[in-house]
Design brief:
With 346 residues, the protein is of the alpha/beta class. The chain is built from 14 helices and twelve strands. It catalyses: tetracosanoate + ATP + CoA = tetracosanoyl-CoA + AMP + diphosphate; a very long-chain fatty acid + ATP + CoA = a very long-chain fatty acyl-CoA + AMP + diphosphate.
Length: 346
């Protein structure tokens, strides 16, 4: 009788319970077999949805916080933490904040720009790309990232299509400027990142930056009233015709900057960026992603397959970006004696 008594509670269960239990177990096994990443994907989706909802709620409450605002707060909170590492030199959050202030002050002092103006930026991967970008953003300007691989007619088309008041050119791209200068619109003021210049009617910027104040410009210069306002123009490659400008809003910058965070990166990570900063992957997901995390970025002048892993080892890189064929180039490299594969997030 004792054995029957032990089984008696089971006999009292509704007849559908064993079937339901078997169904749940079957679904679990099918999910594990056919959709092994279902719960991880669901957690990621909920994380992204909650982030978007939080941003929308802030906007409805009048609490508009842009990526630039987040960077300025980080410069106050962790001023001595490395933000950029470029060719071995460390630029802290405070360093980048102060130099971008100088650039904003230089343009403000010379009365060259006002809130809402568009500025075209033709520079390669270097810290001053980010300094100029942030400095112009602090003035409330819309910045157009120009692809430095585009030349002559296509480049002139990019400049004219975004109708900039100013074109800022890096010191290593003066040859490109010389090609387009005769045909550049006369109402576009050209500023180059040097202390002296042989081009007629072209302004130097480096000397003015060094003479400018590090004081922050008034917050109302760049305060945003609407997250849907345009802040960047990022151009297509032009493989199917002339390049076209994608208009990027504050909201899109925030969403792009949240990508590394959404995939699990943290403030302790060191992100390696070899992609061109005129590309949204490097600028929005990479630099913006570092700001969202409060992390450190190792910036490379240009992608080098032969130096890639040695750079990762040298700077203790934990996160890398890749698009297109980058991984194939890396896999095609010969094995270097003494180098071990590291655990890095892609």
């Amino acid at each position: 009788m004792s054995g029957w008594d032990d089984l008696y509670p089971l006999s009292m269960l509704p007849t559908w319970v064993p079937g339901a239990a078997a169904g749940i177990v079957s679904l679990h096994l099918i999910q594990k077999l056919l959709f092994p990443y279902f719960w991880a994907d669901l957690r990621y989706l909920l994380k992204v949805l909650l982030y978007g909802l939080r941003v929308e709620m802030y906007q409805l409450q009048g609490r508009i916080v842009t990526v630039l605002d987040k960077f300025v707060k980080l410069a106050e909170k962790q001023p001595h933490k490395p933000f950029l590492i470029y060719e071995g030199k460390v630029h802290t959050y405070r360093d980048v904040d102060r130099r971008s202030n100088r650039i904003a002050q230089a343009f403000l002092h010379h009365g060259a720009l006002k809130k809402g103006d568009t500025v075209a930026l033709l520079m390669g991967n270097e810290p001053d790309f980010i300094h100029v970008w942030f400095g112009l953003a602090k003035l409330g300007c819309v910045v157009a990232f120009l692809n430095f691989n585009v030349r002559s007619r296509s480049l002139l088309h990019c400049v004219s299509s975004c109708e900039p008041k100013i074109l800022v050119v890096g010191a290593d791209l003066l040859g490109t400027l010389e090609e387009i200068l005769p045909n550049l619109q006369k109402d576009v003021s050209v500023w180059i990142m040097t202390k002296d210049c042989t081009f007629p009617s072209v302004h130097t910027l480096l000397d003015k930056i060094e003479a400018a104040s590090e004081d922050p410009v008034p917050v109302n210069q760049h305060s945003a009233n609407n997250l849907k306002a345009s802040v960047l123009y990022i151009f297509t490659s032009g493989t199917t015709g002339l390049p076209k400008a994608a208009v990027i809003s504050h909201m899109q910058v925030l969403k792009g900057a949240a990508g590394l965070w959404a995939f699990g990166a943290t403030a302790e990570d060191i992100i390696y960026i070899t992609l061109p900063l005129y590309h949204s992957a490097a600028s929005l997901l990479g630099i913006g992603g570092c700001i969202e995390l409060g992390a450190t970025c190792v910036l490379k002048k240009k992608f080098s397959a032969s130096q890639f892993w040695s750079d990762c080892k040298k700077y203790n890189v934990t996160v890398i970006q890749y698009i297109g064929e980058l991984c194939r180039y890396l896999c095609s490299q010969p094995v270097v004696s003494g180098t071990k594969m590291m655990a890095i997030h892609l």
